[in-house]
Design a protein that fits this description.
- This protein has about 210 residues and is mainly alpha-helical.
- Among the domains are: about 20-70, no CATH class; about 135-210, Endonuclease, Chain A (2-Layer Sandwich), CATH 3.30.870.
- Helices cover about 35% and strands about 10% of the residues.
- It has helices spanning about 5, 25-50, 60-65, 135-145, 165-175, 190-200, and strands at about 155-160, 180-185, 210.
- Helix 4 (about 135-145) runs parallel beside helix 5.
- The longest helix has 25 residues, at about 25-50.
- The protein starts with a helix and ends with a strand.
- Belongs to the FAM83 family.
- Pfam families: SACK1.
- This is Scaffolding anchor of CK1 domain-containing protein.
- GO terms for molecular function: protein kinase binding.
Length: about 210
């Protein structure tokens, strides 16, 4: 199956290169409301009626069904939240690892010492502060703006990857000839595969995209 046929909803040649489709869709909210109010059957019935694709991972659906509770109308929110500062050691060792680095079959840009310049780090906030877009829109724009060059790759590291919009962007990037690497948490890797299956995409057949659990 051609990649373009999988992502036909993204093909709109009249849009400018700088256009970023809003990630919020009203039917997302309505579908989640149906899930909360009527359960899984009501959620799937809504998607079928509106001819919408599934956008929630199975774990997200389970979490919503098991954790969302309707609050009484007279509920008062408290601003006194306890902070648990024992959840992280606060220590980061970027050059230490207990496993070997994975093979990068698609290549990796070689930068000669002293020529590459400084490292760029962008700190993004949600809701946005200085940047004009949300974090998700910024990521999608960076992926969409990437062009094929000898020193251009896209590398994404996530504990869980179930976002269909960002996935479609990286598939489009790989179709443009850009090497794309995904490094995902092994314990959550099955959720990524389920998400790709729901989108009708077999990632094993995508050239230019390599993923490691």
């Amino acid at each position: 199956m051609e990649t373009s046929s999988l992502l036909s909803s993204l093909h709109d040649e009249c849009r400018s290169d700088n256009y970023i489709e809003p990630h919020y869709k009203e039917w997302y909210r309505v579908a989640i409301d149906a899930l909360i109010e009527g359960g899984l059957e009501a959620y799937k019935e809504f998607l079928s009626k509106e001819r919408c694709s599934e956008f929630l991972a199975d774990e997200e659906i389970d979490y919503i069904l098991n954790n969302v509770h309707k609050l009484p109308q007279n509920t008062v929110y408290s601003s006194n939240h306890a902070i648990d500062d024992t959840s992280s050691s606060g220590t980061y060792w970027p050059i230490e690892s207990d496993v070997e680095a994975p093979n990068l079959d698609l290549g990796w840009p070689y930068l000669m010492p002293g020529i590459s310049g400084g490292t760029n780090i962008d700190l993004l906030f949600h809701p946005p502060r200085a940047q004009p877009y949300t974090i998700k829109e910024t990521i999608r724009k960076m992926i969409r703006d990437a062009r094929k060059t000898v020193d251009k790759v896209i590398a994404i590291v996530m504990d869980m990857f179930t976002d269909v919009d960002i996935f479609r962007e990286i598939v489009e990037a790989s179709a443009r000839g850009i090497a794309v690497y995904l490094l995902l948490d092994e314990s959550n890797f099955s959720h990524f595969l389920k998400m790709t299956e729901k989108q009708g995409c077999q990632v094993q057949r995508l050239r230019g995209l390599e993923y490691k659990p």
